[in-house]
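Lab channel / #folding
Pinned by the channel admin:
"Please post every new chain as: sequence first, then the structure tokens as a reply. Keep commentary short and put observations after the output so the thread stays searchable."

First post following the new format, from NK:
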Amino acid sequence: MEKVIHKTAIVDEHAEIAHGVEIGPYSIIGPNVKIGKNTKIRSHVVIEGWTTIGANCDIFQFASIGGIPQDLKYVGEECYVVIGDNTTIREYVTVNMGTAGGGKYTRVGSNCLLMACSHVAHDCLLGDGVILANAALLAGHVTLEDYAIVGGGSAVHQFVKIGRNTMVGGMSRVIYDVPPYCILGGVPTVVVGLNLVGIKRAGFSEDTIKLLKQAFRLLYRSELTFSDAIEQIKKLQQVAEIKHFIDFLTSAERGIMRQRPTKSKI
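Reply from TO:
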């Protein structure tokens, strides 16, 4: 299939548009944009800056990709947005380019879904299979590991890291790092358990799930200090998921989201 560009679209002659791309009415594509094969750009989409979009993506109307960061330190330097293959970006989504102070790149992985009105700020790093539900808001420098899900209306503080296969419930306020494989929710927002449905759907073995339950109990349900809990988790069988759990905890620079305090017995 040849690329199809609507007569009302404005596509800079220097943009790199691959075979099979469709660009809808009134969309605007800047000079430093690269779009991979068979990607569909619907109507009224703006893609600017130094933006690279992979193959087989679908970008819906009124999305804005590659705009300058909402960071007063930005002074026009060349920075980037990179979006992987097979990613869907729905209506009114905004993805801002990176900044020199944050590594220059904003990245969205492959097979992601960014639902309507979600926002990916400068220097965010999203892994593969990430889902942002409607109006989920990521501040600058946020990292989401593979298959993390952020529920609708949630706000994630800058520099927060959210672990893989984690589910953040809707309307959450995320101000610290979220360990992998967990569920976050409630008011105030706390870790409420393991994301058992998510990790089962992801094909985790029963043995691995059992180990993750043990690790979770040591971290959140024991009377151990944070450092002592990590030492006890290190004594578990070191499958890849437990190793990742430990690595995440030991590298958490903002601290981690905690569980709801236990009510005192009177």
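NK: The chain has two domains: 4-141, 200-250.
TO: also worth noting, Residues 206-221 form the longest helix (16 residues).
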